Amino acid sequence: MVLSVADLTGILRKHYENCDLVVEKLPRRSVAFSTWDRHNAYESIEALRKDLAESVPDSVFYSTARYLNPSANAGAGKASETWKQKDRKSTDLTFDLDFDHVKGHSDMTYVEQIDTIAKHTLRLISILEQQYGVKEYQVTFSGRRGFHVRVTDEAYTFLTKSQRKQIMNDLLGERLEKKATLAAYETNSFKSDAAFKLKEPSLRDWGGKIRLACDHLMNNFDTTSQAVLEKYWPKKLTPKELQNLMPRLSNPSFRQRLVRTGDLRAFFGEKLATKTRLENMYAMLLSMAKEKYAVEIDTSVTAEVNKIIRMPGSINTKHGYECRVIEIDELMDMDYLFHNSAQTFGNKQVQVQIDKPMTVQGYRTFSLDKGIHTLPMHEAVLALCQSERQ
Fold first, then answer.
1. Of 240, 228, 234, 180, whose CA–CA distance to 206 is shortest?
2. Domain layout of the chain by residue ranges
3. pLDDT per residue over 122-175, tens digit each?
4. What is the pLDDT of residues 220-270, one digit of tens each?
5. Going by DSSP bridges, is the β-strand pair 308-310/2-3 parallel, antiparallel, or unpaired?
6. Closest CA to 324 of 144, 190, 195, 54
7. Pairing between strand 88-91 and 65-67?
8. DSSP class of residue 40?
9. How many other C-beta atoms are found inside a 10 Å radius of the C-beta of residue 328?
10. Helices and strands: H and E segment counts in the chain
11. What is the Cα–Cα distance from 357 to 235, expressed in whole angstroms?
12. What is the Cβ-side half-sphere exposure of residue 42, based on CA atoms within 13 angstroms?
């Protein structure tokens, strides 16, 4: 038998007949099959699984919120009334991390893209554990562009929008209060009690992360570091400004003094420690810290309380992988991640009809000409799903 796009519905139907859908408190959540069909409700996983096997939708999502009336729908153009009727009781603190938020992703292979956003996911988990004391969470591979992290600790489901935005801004390094990130801050004049001093190095807050970025720059400064200055300095570096900066930055004793003290005013000295230069130096160090320590998340998913995310156990038909709950170890090992992802449809060799030349993206990226090809079943599903979008 030669599989074609026409067989895709049957393949997905067979999957949904026996799949393991992972959703807590399903009767209190809205289930969505598209952005316009998002007010469905089910009393049990069994009822949902049966419906999926019959209808075989392209996508399956569920609400991060729990409602008293999850199926309520006031009609088109009446969103505010719909949310009122649904009567939200709580919302999971959820993070959506996709590789298309990462700079330079278009120059990476698919596996490199997933590996990069996996590192951001690990960074997020570390911050949640160390800074917020989160102990209970679930990590899901979306099946296409990245990962979801859902905090399962009930205490976090009652956070307000404002509290969620505060967490989001902390992860991104946005809307920081400058004084809060510095040990001392006074730039109006070079008085004896004035200072522009960095905090002690630490991963627990942005002040510490800025200091870590500063120490890294000072400890690794060499003749190639002018390019670093030009990249991160908030304004275009003029030859005159470079002439002012380089003697200090090129001098090991000045750099080590800054590493020891974190005092930017003392580093520049009375003549060079102008307000503008200190502010620019701070902005440069903050940019460097954000590039290394910020977490790239979809801000709307974290900040809003009525969002939907892809359901674990469903197939992401935009790509062909199953959206599934994963182990933390899979974030550290792409071989392990994609090996486990291949198990959904397995490695049995099958023949597949390709109607036009295409490129398949998965654990391996390969091209297929028009015609019949022999592939492992999991790659055949990738090819059939992706052929619909090329």
1. 180
2. 2-171+298-387, 178-293
3. 999 999 999 999 999 999 999 999 999 999 999 999 999 999 999 999 999 999
4. 988 678 888 999 999 888 999 999 899 899 999 999 999 999 999 989 988
5. unpaired
6. 144
7. antiparallel
8. B
9. 11
10. 15, 16
11. 47
12. 21
| CA contacts within 13 A on the Cβ side of 346 | 5
* Residue 67 near residue 86, CB atoms below 8 Å: yes
Residue at 102: amino acid letter: V
Strand stretches in 268-317, DSSP E: 308-310
Tokens of 198: 């960095």
CA distance linking residue 291 with residue 285, whole number of Å: 10
Alpha helices in the chain (DSSP H): 8-18, 45-55, 79-86, 110-132, 161-172, 206-219, 226-232, 239-249, 252-261, 264-272, 275-293, 299-303, 328-332, 334-342, 377-387
Length of the chain: 390
DSSP of 180-195, one letter per residue? GGEEEE--SS--TT--
Is the separation of the CB atoms in 172 and 183 below 8 Å?
no
Closest alpha carbon to 297 in 92, 93, 96, 91: 96
Taking each helix axis from N to C terminus, what angle separates 252-261 and 206-219, rounded to the nearest 10 degrees?
160
Pairing of strands 349-354, 2-3: parallel
Q: What tokens appear for 365 in the block?
A: 């990226």
Would you give the distance in Å from CA 355 to the centre of its chain?
A: 35
Contact between residue 61 and residue 82 where contact means Cβ atoms under 8 Å apart: no
Closest C-alpha to 171, from 92, 101, 108, 259: 101
May I ask the CATH class of domain 2-171+298-387? alpha beta
Count of Cβ atoms closer than 10 Å to residue 85 Cβ: 16
